[in-house]
Amino acid sequence: MTARDVTTTLPPSGDVSTVEAFVRTLSGQASIGIFLSDPDGRTLYLNDRLRRIAGLPIAPTPGDCWRHALAPEDRDLICAEWSGATHSDRSFSREFRFRRPDGSMRWVMAEAFPLRTAGEPSGGYVGIVRDITPRQLALDALHSAEERYRTLALQSPHAIFVHADDTLLFINEAGTRLFGLATAQAIEGHPLSEFFPKEFLQNLPLANVATGRPNNRQFLRSDGQVIDVELIAAPVVFDGQPAIQVLVTDITAQNQIVEQLHRGKKLATAATLAGGMAHEFNNCLTAIMGFSDLALPSLAPDSRVHGHIQQVILASKRARDLVTQMLMFGRQADGAKQPLSLDILLKETLRIIRGQLPDNISLREWVSGATNLVSADPTQIHQLCLDLLSRAQHAMTLNGGVLEVRLETIRLDSSMTGHELPLPSGQYVRLTVSDTGDGSPPDSRPQTSTPLSMRLTAGDQARAGLAEIQRIVSEHGGTLRATSTAGQGTTTEVYLPVMPQSHSAWGTEPTRGNTSPLSQPKEFLAEPDKER
Prior knowledge:
Blueprint: H1 16-29, E1 33-37, E2 43-46, H2 48-54, H3 65-68, H4 72-88, E3 92-99, E4 105-114, E5 125-131, H5 133-155, E6 159-164, E7 167-171, H6 173-179, H7 184-187, H8 198-201, E8 215-220, E9 226-238, E10 241-250, H9 252-295, H10 304-331, E11 338-341, H11 342-354, E12 361-367, E13 373-376, H12 378-395, E14 401-412, E15 426-435, E16 450-453, H13 466-475, E17 479-485, E18 489-497
C-alpha cells in the first residue's frame, strides 16, 4: 500500500448530505466526547459520549448546559478561560472536573479549535473531551503513597537516606542527628562523598541491592564519637526516578551489650576457675594447719620454733579467710543472697585498702569478733564496703586524718531511747565508717551534726552517691544513716538484719540511764596492730 492524499477520497464539499452523514456517524460512534459551539461559545451539539461523561440528560438544553455540570470548585476558572478563548478566537485546552447528578466526579481533558474556512473569521468551535479519571485516580494514589512514604521517612526513628548517581536526594532528621550532619535542606542534592568518608562508602550495599542483606559499618562523627551502624538498601522510585534507599540502624548500644555479655561469660569462667583453685588451696591449708596443730604441743612454749609454728597457723587462718571469699565468688550468681559472715569479708576488704592508704591517713579497726550471719550478696556487700571506705579516704585526701571502721552485732528495740531508725525490732549487724576529713563542698555541708538521710532518694546529691549504697542496703532489708559535722568529718552507719537461724554470739550494751545503746557501743581492738 502506498501513501496518498486521503482528502481526495472524501465527499466533495457540495455533497452536504454525505458530509453530514459522515460527521454524525463519526460523532455517534466515537469513544471520546465531541461538541460543536457557535463563535460565542454557546453549545450547538454534543454527542452521547460527552453527555454520559458529564451526566447530562438525554436531551440537554443547547447553550451553556455543560457549564452547569462543572464541579463547583472549577466552574469560575473554566468559564473564564473558555470565554477568553472564544473572545480572542483562539484554541482552548484544559483539565477539569464534571460533577454528575449521582455525586460522582469525572476528570476530563477538553480541547477546542476554531472552525475557519478559506481565511474567513471563525464560524464556531469544534472540541473533543477525553475521560482521564482512571489516570487521575492513579496519579492521586501515587501522590498519596509518596506523601505517606515521605511522612513515615521523616518521622521514622531510624536514619533513612536516598541517593542516586552518588548524589544525596533525601535524608530524614534522624539521619542528620545520627551522622551529626547539617539540616537536610543544606545537604540534599550534594555528593555523598562530601558527608561520608571513603571508607564508609566503600563496598556498601548502595548499588547492588539484590541480596538485601544488612551491612555493618563504623562511622566517625564530627564530634569524634565512633558509632556502629547497620545498613539495609533497597531500590525505590524517588520523584519519578530510580534511586537507592538506605535504612540505617544504630547498633552501638547493642554491640556494647554483646561485649558486656562476653565479658560476663569470661568472669563466670574466671569465677569457676577461682572456685576450683580455692578448693585445692583449701586442701593444702587443711594439711598445713592440721600438722601445725599436731606439732605445736610437742614444742617448748618459749622456744623460737614454737613461735614460728604459731605464725604459720596465723598465716594459714588468714589464707583460709581469703579462700572463703574465693569460694563465695566462685559459686555465687548475680544477685544471689547467701549466709554471709560480714567480719570475714570486711577483714579481707580492709587488707586490700590498707596498702592503698597514703601516709597521712591512719586506719583503725574495731571488730567485735565473729558477727552473726546475714543473708546477702557477697559481691554487692563487698562493693558497698569498698565504696564507703573510698569515700572516707577521699574526704581526707588533702589534710589526712583517721579512718575508723567498726563492726558489731546489736539489738534494736522499739522501746529503746534513741531508736529512730525505720527498722523493726531485732538483731542487726552494724557497720560504721567514720572519717575526720571535710570533703563535702561548703554549700552542701551542714553546719551542725544532723542526719543527712534516713532513706536517701536516687536524686539526692547531699553525699554524692550515697543513694546507690542505700539502694543496696535497702535490697538487703536494712537501712543507712549518715551524719556530718562541719570540720569534724562524716560517720556512715549501715544496718543489716541478722538471719533468724543464726545463733552466733552478739554483743549488746546495758543501758545507762537515758543513754542510747546505739550511740554507746562497747569498743575494743580486734588485733593490736590494726592502727598504723
